[in-house]
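Priority: low. Protein: Iron compound ABC transporter, ATP-binding protein. Input follows.
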Amino acid sequence: MTCEDVVATGRYPYTGRFGVLRAEDHAAVQNAMELVQVAEIGDSLFDRISDGQRQRVMLARAICQEPEILILDEPTSYLDVRHKLEFLSILQKLCRERELTVILSLHELELAEKISDRILCVNGRAVDRIGTPEEVMTAGYITELYGIRMGSYDEGSSDM
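Result:
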């Protein structure tokens, strides 16, 4: 299956019984692929591309469904730093240009702080705190939530 085929599956809810894509469906697929910068790999086989490219293809698939809200569970897992930043930059652009709401789980505190308008912290099974990054990402709260102290790693001790 090519990358374009994978993205096109996002349009199936809009097709009739026979699953035939119309001109507007093909346009939505191309638009989504261009938006997330994967148009140039449309003919590539999905199982032959990098993890970063796969994440963007799957994001294009979701976008061409024209959602109002995207919910993503650790979308940057297994991506190197460059691809994480590219992926998150694309999400920010979507939020601004399409007024799309993105809800995502991240364990990288620095990334969450940099890209989020609001942060919701979960402790166990309960919501512990909701607020802006400035309100939530304080040294005292992070210490309390994770049981760690903020600071730098010292090879000579087990303390951080």
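The helical segments are 3-8, 23-35, 51-63, 81-98, 109-115, 133-136, 139-146. Residues 3-117 form a domain with the Rossmann fold fold (CATH 3.40.50.300).
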